[in-house]
């Protein structure tokens, strides 16, 4: 799934929300930005905490120090890290300490004292100045080597969240529908509605004959809330529909390619809730809206579907109940929706 980066607008442009966000993003993009392999982050050696340790070509150690604002002491920090790493030689089975240690400082700007310190510390420290560029609705991180002028760039997956304060109250028709469901399911669906509508300001709530759809227009939906009458006990049960990846082959992991209209429900009757407590009877079923058949075109248990999507098998995936299954599926539907916009 897409991991979105929190940015904030300033008087002169955009910046990362804090240094942790900057570090998360650089760590996730070490390979496309630098061709490096992640090794450790926030690694403490002899009382010195290194932001990022990475591996370059031929097992070379590279140390990155990140600053979200200008910092006069970044060279001093890298010098200390260099000293203790040379002395302690951690991860020696992975690192060739006969090779020079790469030192990189990343910041939005560099103080004149940084250049003085670097001039006389006799270490080869690379200064990379970063800037967040905006092209329409797309954001990019640009790194510039202040000595050579060389540029590199990578996309930043960012979106402006809609404040929950701006989300309209649920339509009366939706509240009437939810009142027919078990209380736990009603509360869950209200929470999912807030999550969906706060995901992106372009998501609209549409009402049509007792069905509440969420997305952009009629063709780019991510979720629906409706109801279905039980064949057992004449009860009204909630129907949560998400546009999720479809896999054509259960035995082929990570084979989810297409998107489909997937119903999230349970075949266990009677029960106090259908969505808030998923179990081995809970399922994900692919059923196109135009299908006239009462049976689903494809069918998985919720746990089976999530394992399939993640490409994991039972012995390496948390057992059912260890994660919030509905929240996971809604997050997945939103991540897939944003790709289509």
Walkthrough of the structure:
This is DUF91 domain-containing protein. GO terms for molecular function: endonuclease activity; nucleic acid binding. The chain has about 350 residues and is an alpha+beta fold. The protein folds into two domains: about 150 residues, Trna Endonuclease, Chain: A, domain 1 (3-Layer(aba) Sandwich), CATH 3.40.1350.10; about 180 residues. Helices cover about 25% and strands about 30% of the residues. It is built from eight helices and 16 strands. The strands form three sheets. A seven-stranded mixed β-sheet has the order 3-4-5-6-7-8-9. A seven-stranded antiparallel β-sheet has the order 10-11-12-13-14-15-16, with helices on one face. The protein has a two-stranded antiparallel sheet with strand order 1-2. A hairpin with a 5-residue loop joins strand 4 and strand 5. Helix 3 runs parallel beside helix 4. The radius of gyration is 25 Å and the shape is elongated. The two termini are about 15 Å apart. About 5% of the residues have low confidence.
